[in-house]
Amino acid sequence: MPIQWLDKLIRRARVKSPWLLHFDCGSCNGCDIEVLACLTPVYDVERFGIVNVGNPLHADLLLVTGTVNRRNGRVLTNLYEQMAAPKVVVAIGSCGLSGGIFRTAYNVIGGVDQMIPVDVYVPGCPPRPEAIIDGVFLALDRLSRPAKSSDRPPLKPVAGRSSP
Amino acid sequence: MVALIITFILLLPVAAAAGCLIVRRDNLGNGVILITGLALAAAALMMVSIAPAGLTAAELGGRTFEGVILAADMGLLIIFLYYGRRYKSRAVLFLSTAQMLLLGGVEWLRPPWVPFDAMVFQADGLARVMLLIINLVGPLICCHAIAYMRNHERHLKLEKSAQPRFFFVMLVFLGAMNGLVLSNQLHHLYFFFELTTLCSFLLIGHDKTPTAVDHAVRALWVNSIGGTAFALALVLIRVSKDTLDLQRLLTQGHSPADLLLPALALLCLAALVKSAQFPFQRWLLGAMVAPTPVSALLHASTMVKVGIYLMLRLAPMIQGTFLSRCTAVYGGFVFLAAAALAVGQSNGKKVLAYSTISNLGLIFACVGLNTPPALTAAVYLLLFHAVTKALLFLCVGTIEQHIHSRDIEDMRGLYAVMPATALMTVAGVLMMIMPPFGVLLGKWMAMESAATDIPVIMLVVAGSALTVMYWARWAGLLMSEPVVVPFRPERMPMSTWAALSVLCAGGAGLSAAAPWLYDLLVSAVIAPGSLLPVYTVHWGIMESAAGRFAVFPLSLLAVSGCLVSVLAFRHANRGRAVSPYLCGEQTAEPCVFNGPMDQPVKAGAKNYYLTSIFGEERLTVWLNSAAAVLLILLLGGTL
Amino acid sequence: MNHALIILGIGLVAGPLLGGLAGGLDRIVTARLQARTGPPVWQPYYDVIKLMAKELVVVNGWQAFCVYSYLFASMLALILFVMQSDLLLILFTQALGAVFLAMGALASTSPYSQVGAHRELLQILTYEPLLFLVGVGIFLETGSFKISVVMQWKDPLILKLPLLFAALGYVMIIKLRKSPFDLAASHHAHQELVRGVFTDFSGPLLGMIEIGHWYDTVLILGICSLFWATGPVPMAALAAAAYATIILIDNAAARLNWRWMLGHVWAMGLALALVNLICRHQG
Can you list the alpha helix ranges (DSSP code H) found in B434-542? Predict the structure, then answer.
């Protein structure tokens, strides 16, 4: 009984205190400005306990904007690796989802999910802050479920990937 | 019984030293050193357990002994003159000649007169504390030196081993110290005082490189200033009093008319020189060219402690004088100044040297305050500083022989290379600055007793903050990545292991036992016999009117906290290892990140040494001038 | 014996309870000052519970050693305070905690963590003399370092030691990690050094640092409240007023670099303390 109660408390705390890491994976900065807009008094995501920590070792949530290319794909994986479980990933904007208008560029690998497992996709070019906040909450829903980090597929090595 | 032990403790080191010279075989020589060490430690412990007593002049053969001492005095000065000529040092020549003239003057005008019932050697409370420091810490350093010197000579590729000479001087040094703290007649004390100068000169110049010789000569002439001041003081005392007997001088006190007070000021100057206080610190800094056990010996158990001993001896005589007050401020200033210089240093041995000067400054400040609590603080600091500093010096020596550098920056991540030594160094550092360890207990007492003196306490609090800064950063970087699990101590020679671990465990154990040491040793130093004790001890808690330090309970808590933390360490090593944050650009190699053009770049951060503020070149001049002004005030105030 | 145990319990519980609450209030007040709503008052508890339940990710095992020692020292300092022990001993114990935190950060090779640790050491260097002078000032007024004696003092100390109280203000700002002296690590996320000393601590270890910070907060507010120790109400009022002032300063000030911090706080703080001590005791 106390175990269940504790478990419930912990899951509630996870939902109530998502610390996020925002990583710009070569975005045009359109999405990034919208992400930062969420922190302003108008949207004030700190109401929900959301803090932008800027450090993978502290973060629970990875917000990725922009396309993944060969150079920053490795950085993205590194950051994801450094985050402590349980962790969720939100891909933001057309580029983050699929590579967007850059998807055929010679250096672009594609969307975020080509490198790391993504939990929530927020479409838009750029998405509105409301959409981003909504996406974060969808991701939190995943955090509040009993943690099963083992059901994630293992990360694929960078070198084995070719451009589409 | 007492006579036997005193004779034993005085003669054994000299006999053993001679043995070292004669026995040229390595193993045999080492055996002599170890057995001597054990015997000295046992004798010192026995000395503590029996009632205070001494040797009178009658027992020593009266006049003959005086003659021997006088001849030895002159012999020493002739040796000084010889070295002065050989190394062309005018200062040594001049100061030694001056001392000869002064001594001759005393002999000619009013020869020291020792009645047959006067004590020549006496083991009272203070002498016992000193005996413990000398004969417990000293032999441990000698023990460490066995393996150290073997490595040292292998490294230098000497054809003929200089080890017998080295150990000869080391052991004579211990004997000289024993004689010094046991002497009750000031002119005998002077002889031993000069003998320690000679020993330190020989040890500093042991390697015979040009730098070593240069620094040794510097040590000789700077210490000769102290010797000259001492000789002058002897003349002044002899002119105004009919005795050179310390106990009698203490009971007689001084009247404003006589010349005792200037003489005391001169003795005080001699003590400051010996303890390498500003502006005389250069000889001690230069002494680092010697093999590290020498530094350990000078800093921990012998040379610099002479000054403290002398001041503690004279403390009752200067109580309430301007001299005493001035010493307090001066000591506080040196505490701050040396700590500031230590902050700007990345050379490990120099940090240790400045920290010694700094701590001695604090002890001088306590002696200058001259209240019973302050003197208690001084004795505690003296005792624990000796143990901890010996440990730290020996650790640095061991590290230096392994990594061939004494720079703190090169010790980054030392735990991966030398886990046991790194851990003991960290322990030593923590013992210097952390509660509930002994040095901090002493500092706590010092602060509580200095609190009524606003100038002194201002200097002490600032110095204390600087102290934390330069120690903490050193301890921190020893533990830096990469960590190797499981813990496997590195291979060390048995003697090194023994010396380091005994010092480490002894320092921690003595700290926990500090309240009982108070009843056993310390209170006898402060108020022999009469008066109420300053601190009451119950359940291992030391309590005075002003404060309370729960030494033993805190030690227990610290041990349990440490155990929990060690468990946490072991648990953490089972956690998922990640690389430190390098903006996501880290590579598989530790502390290397992916730079421009996909090239690996080493990530690195150096310590803050704040050389723009605390740089040695910048600050020393100013600090020396300020110290000199204080010193002139100190000396001039007595006239 | 029972009495002692109760006091021990109060000490252990008061830290997280009051410290967490103070942290939550701070976040709300700060948000309101920025025209935001801010998180609920128990947000710090959510943060810590979440952190404690995260995966254990370590850069270096010694960090765990240092964090546990830090928390232990901070708890010990507060317990000693509640047990009305010796003021200087308490200050030494809390310094022990601060040093362990810096040592933990030095155990990582990340430059962010290293620089953060050195800034933390500079902060310790800056506030320690003032903190000890506060102890000395209290001793000179009351004749004892024991808090039990200070608590029985009938007059408010702040009337005798106003300048020293102002000097304590500097200490509180540094110790609570508030602007303009939050260079080692801002208590709010994000700064030029990522997270300064906290950069390479993660999950449960970070949570424990947070709990240690709660204990530190209560201790420093407790020391502040000694300046009006005539009863529980004035003590609480003084601590609350000081805390509110510090939050205001935090929101109004920009971060300074270490030269400014060291120079300004030592010059101003030591001068304030010196003037006050000399006026009271050698005039």
Answer: 438-450, 454-478, 494-512, 514-517, 523-526
